[in-house]
Design a protein that fits this description.
Largest sheet of chain A: 6 strands, parallel
Largest interface: A-B, 56 and 52 residues
Radius of gyration of chain B: 19 Å
Oligomer: heterodimer
Strand order of the largest sheet of chain B: 2-1-3-4-6-5-10
Number of domains of chain B: 2
CATH topology of the largest domain in chain B: Rossmann fold
Structural class of chain B: alpha/beta
CATH architecture of the largest domain in chain B: 3-Layer(aba) Sandwich
Distance between the termini of chain B: 39 Å
Strand content of chain B: 15-25%
CATH topology of chain A: Rossmann fold
Strand content of chain A: 5-15%
Number of strands of chain A: 8
CATH class of the largest domain in chain B: Alpha Beta
Number of helices of chain A: 12
């Protein structure tokens, strides 16, 4: 009898496709950003995809997820529609947020993706609040928050960890430690190297794992989430990873050497899962076909998104308040 | 009606919690009644899951209230002093206020942040401020500033039922006040001002505790034959321009009075709006009474010297009067 918690080869292949979906998706974001089709400054998670896929594999639609400014991967891994996600990033009316949010403020409420945030660490207490709501209603859903190591420099990180432990919240903290807070290395921005070390004084269980190893992420997240669903209280999972892209699209990355960048490409999480699948007996051609399917899926979604209508400027005051009567404060002089 | 402002806030919260299981309270000491006793007894009645004590972590607890509101709770968060709202500003400004908009209407933040403001009794520079002007500058936030116990009762209940984040500002000078007036049968609509006293010569626009000063001033001025209309704004966002227009069209002379620092205050916005929308109605320049540009001092003599009060309004109205 197979253990449902242990993925089959078919499961790994599905996740392989998810990794490629994110990789190609962000490749298209990068390409169109360079072409001037993406307003603002999108942040790519290229190289960090295994964290998103490995954690989200354990989530239901009802579980809530909050992510950072680097959240395309988490959004797709949670199951959001590829076209609607891309349409939002290029500011279309068919986008998840009807073009009001963009890359840094993706929300897909029906899918439990409750928000990316442009303020580093700002998402942490929101996720705790979602966990409190579930706890108060006696639900078994959990809340997950993704954040970078840079967020540990914010006081609200420590406030939220303390509260989550005190209230025994069903909250999974997932730190994607990519070694950089924007352009500044961890050595330069934190006196504490291991993010998981912050959990100890609060008595919160925590682990540091290789975030580029999908198998390790999947196993660790599965264990943590199973415990969370049984009311064990919050858990911190630190995933050591590496941002293969710059901080934002267009970042010249003068703070990293060519050698550093070259070395990390060898750690690519997609290549590593591929090696595992080959060991399991999968053939190169089959895996290439999976990647090709993901590429086509993304290209088709991107084409649809680009063809979608732009928001109507006449709707710019929609959604400020619950009722139009409350918006009346600003009289727009014609 | 013989309840104090504090007691009637408690009654409003109790009734709303009894009516709607989504209403939850959180804040520093709230399970023990809070610093001013507003939530006394509610933890015993509704349990500590719905009346939650928090650490002194304004940034986190404001975020938690916001996240809970996104997920269907109706949290009422107590920020003990508005001065400490500085620590909650990131969440209020960047998250709570903008979630409905940024999500294209997918999500809402039905949350009330109760806080207490204003100067009284030597609380000094870090516990006496009137910072409401900061919040009226942020689209997405509703700002409510009740002027009396009965007003607070109705406005708090309406705020709890609203689908938007509300900053509910209670003036500490009003806390022990009682009012001889029956409760209104209907809850007030958020965004509607109230004529607190009918008059014909000059309009005084005020909110929060300053409405009482305006009414005192109107009494005094009536003895010398001046008829003053007092408009209690109740909510600063939305601003009831229709009510302001109705009063200004009658009196043609306007004074705006608030305890907050005059520079960049709520009065400046109202003044500008009257200037642009109602210029033809004016028989005199719009004037303001507000705090001089200084921190609130500690010593009673200094506090009294700085704070705008009834005599300031009396003098300002006399200078405006026909």
């Amino acid at each position: 009898m197979t253990d449902p918690a242990v993925p089959t080869v078919a499961d790994w292949k599905r996740m392989y496709r998810s990794l490629w979906r994110i990789r190609y998706f962000e490749g298209q974001v990068q390409r169109l950003a360079a072409a001037g089709e993406v307003p603002g400054f999108p942040h790519l998670s290229t190289g960090q995809e295994a964290v998103a896929v490995g954690v989200c594999a354990h989530l239901t639609r009802e579980d809530t997820l909050f992510t950072s400014h680097r959240g395309h991967g988490h959004t797709l891994a949670k199951g959001s529609d590829v076209q609607a996600t891309f349409a939002e990033i290029i500011g279309r009316d068919s986008g998840l947020c009807r073009g009001r949010g963009g890359s840094m403020h993706l929300v897909d409420a029906a899918n439990g993706m409750l928000g990316a945030t442009g303020v580093v660490a700002g998402n942490l207490p929101l996720a705790a609040g979602a966990a409190w709501a579930a706890q108060s209603r006696g639900e078994t859903t959990i809340s997950v928050v993704f954040f970078g190591d840079g967020a540990t420099g914010a006081g609200v990180f420590h406030e939220t960890v303390n509260l989550a432990v005190l209230w025994k919240l069903p909250l999974l903290f997932v730190c994607e430690n990519n070694g950089y807070a924007e352009f500044t290395s961890r050595e330069e921005h934190s006196a504490v190297m291991r993010v998981s070390a912050f959990a100890a004084p609060y008595g919160m269980p925590a682990r540091t794992i290789d975030g580029n190893d999908l198998l390790a992420v999947h196993a660790a997240a599965g264990e943590a989430i199973a415990a969370l669903r049984h009311g064990s209280g919050p858990y911190l999972l630190e995933c050591m990873t590496y941002r293969m892209a710059g901080h934002y699209v267009g970042d010249a990355q003068h703070y990293r050497s060519k050698e550093e960048l070259a070395a990390v490409r060898e750690k690519c999480p997609i290549e590593r899962l591929k090696r595992h699948l080959i060991e399991c007996g999968a053939k190169d051609a089959e895996l290439d076909a999976i990647a090709e399917e993901a590429r086509r899926e993304v290209l088709q979604a991107v084409a649809q998104a680009r063809a979608a209508p732009r928001p109507d400027p006449a709707t710019v005051l929609d959604y400020v308040y619950s009722a139009p009567s409350l918006v009346a404060i600003s009289r727009v002089i014609p | 009606m013989s309840e104090t402002f504090i007691e009637i806030l408690r009654r409003a919260l109790d009734e709303e919690m009894g009516r709607d299981p989504a209403v939850h309270l959180l804040g520093e000491d709230v399970a023990a009644g809070g610093a001013f006793g507003v939530t006394n007894g509610l933890a015993q009645k509704y349990g500590t899951q719905r009346v939650r004590n928090t650490p002194i972590s304004e940034a986190a607890i404001t975020g938690i209230a916001t996240g809970a509101a996104l997920c269907g709770l109706r949290p009422v968060l107590e920020i003990m002093f508005i001065d400490f709202a500085t620590l909650a500003l990131d969440c209020l400004v960047n998250q709570s206020a903008k979630y409905r908009y940024m999500s294209g209407g997918q999500l809402a933040v039905p949350m009330v942040v109760r806080t207490q403001a204003g100067a009284a009794g030597g609380a000094a520079a870090q516990h006496s401020q009137s910072l409401e002007a900061w919040f009226i500058h942020v689209p997405g936030l509703v700002v409510v500033a009740p002027s009396s116990p009965l007003e607070a009762y109705g406005l708090l209940k309406s705020a709890v039922r609203l689908g938007d984040p509300v900053l509910f500002i209670e003036h500490k000078r009003l806390y022990t006040l009682k009012e001889e007036r029956a409760l209104d049968a209907e809850l007030p609509q958020i965004g509607k001002a109230r004529v607190a006293r009918v008059g014909t010569d000059v309009t005084v626009i005020a909110y929060s505790a300053m409405v009482r000063n305006a009414l005192e001033a109107a009494d005094e001025l009536s003895r010398s034959g001046l008829s003053v209309e007092v408009l209690d704004l109740r909510t600063l966002v939305p601003l009831d321009m229709a009510a302001i227009a109705a009063s200004v069209s009658k009196t043609h002379r306007v004074l705006i009075a608030h305890e907050a620092v005059q520079n960049g205050g709520v009065g400046a916005e109202i003044c500008a709006r009257i200037g642009s929308d109602l210029f033809d109605e004016l028989d005199a320049p719009v004037t303001r009474v507000g705090c001089p540009f200084a921190p609130i001092p500690f010593a009673p003599e200094l506090e009294q010297a700085l704070l705008p009060a009834t005599p300031n309004i009396v003098r300002a109205v006399r200078a405006l009067a026909p």
